[in-house]
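just leaving the lab so this will be short. what follows is a protein written twice so to speak, once as letters and once as structure tokens for the fold. can you read through it and tell me how you think this chain folds. anything you notice is useful, everything is just below:
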Amino acid sequence: MKEYRVSNSGSGRLFKTGWLERLTRTNFLFPVIFYYAASAGCILYAELKLNHASWYNWLLLPCGMLIFTLVEYLLHRFVFHFRAETAKQQKIKYTIHGVHHAFPKDKDRLVMPPLISIGIAILFWIFFYLLTGDFVWYLFSGFLAGYSTYLIIHYSVHRYHAPRNFLKILWRHHSLHHYYSDEVAFSVSFPLWDWIFGTLPVHKGKGQPKESGMLPDR
């Protein structure tokens, strides 16, 4: 597979059809606000409608946020960076995530299109409901809040300079994923998962622009 240099400017086109192309572009504020509002709605419903509301149910909120960070890591590593063996697989990989590696500062492709993310969220709600029953509203509220928080972190890392405080590690960690090796540093919002699963970058120096294996043959 050929490799092409990352571009820190411009954008890539995925579809020739205009309306399909527009669906791949999203203003990051929409899902951030939507999922924070949905998170608040879950809590409000649980507190008003459930008979077994108790203060310790709120502990499920941070649990849900932590679960999201694990899901984020696993999806990023095993779905977005799946090993593409054929030209068709390379094209699929480029469409779902490789275009972000090709143009990492394209502000319209820093969040998942809402139609896709809502569908995935529904599947996770069903899964959590099967595990926890009515307590799903607390757990899922934390999960959705975790997603919105991740979106803010991911957008900020790509669009703004690193702050001069402890949060700088998030900028450094994700930059190594994009500019040093896309086979390490899969977690954006909770880099501890990379330490747990052995995908921390070995190289400790500054990441340099490189040829990206995320791009398909042309």
User: Anything to note?
Assistant: The radius of gyration is 18 Å. The chain has one domain: 4-212.
